[in-house]
Each structure stands twice: as C-alpha cells, then as structure tokens.
Amino acid sequence: MSERPTVVLLGATRERHASVTAALEPIAFLSKEVNSLALSKSRIVLVDLTYDLERGLRAVEEVRRVIAQVQIVAVADAKDPEVILRAMRAGACEFVVLADGRELAAVVKLLLQRGARESRTGTILSVFPSKGGVGATTAAVNLACALSRLEARVLLVDFERQLGAVLAFLDLAPRESIGDVAKNLHRLDRELLLSSLAHHASGPYVVAQPDSLEDGDAVTAAQATEVLQFAARHFDYVICDGLRGFDELSVAVLDASSRVELVLTQDVIALKNAKRCLSVFQRLGYDKDKVEILINRYQSKAPIDVAAASDNLGLEVRCTVANDYPAAVAALNRGLPIESVAPRSPAVRDLGELARRLTGTPPEKPRNLFRMIVSTLATKESPAHVARRTPEAT
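Structure tokens predicted for AAA family ATPase:
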C-alpha cells in the first residue's frame, strides 16, 4: 500500500483520471473508490463536473451527506460563475480548472496540510453544576480566561438555549450561534470559524445563543457532538457551560468531554446532588479520572471542608476556588474576568493553578520577599543620587 494519502476522484473518464494522477503523483495516491478513504488519513474527494454537471452535483451532495468532515473539490474545464456557485451550494469547498495541473496539486496539498493540522484535537471540558447558583458559569468563564493567559487557544461554548449568561459575563455581543455553526460546519475552516465567533480581549472565543429568546436554535444532541469535535480540532481547550441536568443534549456534551469539573459549594444540598451526579456518571461509564470535584467559593472554616466532602463523595477533592464574592460580582457587573478587576484575588490564584495543572505548566514560583525588597529599593532614587545626577539642581 502506498504511504501517500489517498484522494478519491469521481465522475472522470479514463483520460481525465490519467491527467489527475499525473498532477497528484508526488503528493497523493488517486483512487476511484470512496471506501478507500476509510484506510486513509485524508478526507479529500475530487468530483469532475465536466461531462455531466447534474450528475456531478448530485455526487457532491451525496458525498457531503455520507462522509463526515470530507473536503470536496469540484473539477471542471472552465470557470463558469454559475457552475462554481452551484458546486459550492452542493457542498464543495474548492473549485479547480483541471487544465492547470499545478493549481489542482497546490489545492490538494493545501487541503492535506489543513487536514493534518486539524487532526490534532484539543481537550473538551464541561463545567457541570451540582445545583443552580454554585457559580459554574463564573468558574467556566474565568477558567477560560486563565487558560488563555497561558497562551492556550480557548473556545467557550454556552449550551444554555434561552438564558445563557456567558456573553454577559464578558460583555460580548452575540455573533454566530451554536445552531449557525452546526449548519455551516462543512463550509467552515479555521480562519472563517475564528472570524465568525465573538472574541474577548482576554483571549477566549465564545459561541452562544442569540440575545432574543425567540431566536434561540434548538441544537440536537448529534449537532452538539459534531460542533464540539469540530471545535476541538481548532482549539486547545473547548470549555462547555450551560449544562443543566441530564437531558439528551447535556449527556451528549458530557459524553464528548474528556474532562468534567463537577462544581459544588459547601452546603448539604450541593453535596447531596454532587453524590447523585457521581452515581449517574458511574452508570454512564465515565472513568474516575474524567470527573473532578471543584468546590467553588471555598471557605476553610466552613463545616463541610475538603476532608468531609471527599469522605462523603468517595472521591478526593483536589480543586477548590476561594470565595471572593465581591470581586466576582464586580467583575460580572463590568463584563470583565475577575483577573481584570482584582488580579490578586484568591479566586484568580486558584483558577490559575487549575489552568496550570490542566496545561501541564509548572506552578508559579512564590515571590521572594528579599528580592522584592531589593528590587524595589533599586528602582528608587535617593535624593543624594538625584543631586549627583543633576548637579545644576539646587
């Protein structure tokens, strides 16, 4: 078997097949069988529209329908604007005139490089509340910002259809909704995706539902899974918020996630619900390493401390986020991450530590008090020093 990636050509005569084979000889192996893509890392199909346009367009639509994440190149003898438009509407992502074999080779090479780049997948992480009001969205938004500060590419997805709050947390206007992204996956590449999403200055991109309750799209579980898998090829971290309960959509998102942060507070109801959630996760077949307990608004002197929570849940609590309610509310009201309002907040510190652990970044070294004092003194000029430097001064 050839080590070159396989590219499929449909609808071509023997002569045209020979021409395309010659054009792609250095970079790809040409096949007539769509099934051959199953053994190939590429998902590229060329459809020749030259001799039977209607049949070729039907082939484009069928390939788009049957093969996930396929990249279709329409091939013809001339650039007819009407034909190009119809091919794109049918599902082609590129249009090439076969007379120029170099152009076809360049397009296929570009698609192969793009496919190799997109085959690297990021981490899908769901922030799941054990009950309402535990601060899951606060944790999700500020964790996304903390990951961005570590130069990770982060997408924040708000799955709350009608009352999502992620856009408000970051004072962003809605752009493409989850439904829009789901409908246009076959047309999107990385550049187009990034240009169509809301983007906060602190780093994260955001996709959510429109402001208007009537305009909210009903995203199916299958669409949600497809959007997340697509997004994971373009971002290092995809943070999912807005999951409530265990409906079909939430379970699909949790299934697609490689990590779940189960958020609770230090009260009996949150603890009891967290235990019930862990039981559901177990029945769903999730590995213990997939789920982590995150105690939000943590207070060390509360009756339910880390040890008590770990003992009750049967799972070690490794993550706490300190209570800094005033800073969190101030940040929300200004549409900013907590880091921007209170950079020394203990909540920022704890979420930063979680981000570092997720990315494998070494913990920040504690500041050396002696070095800080020396550094501060060194930057201050004594009156005598100023006088020596400016002898004309009196």
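The first strand starts at residue 6 and ends at 10.
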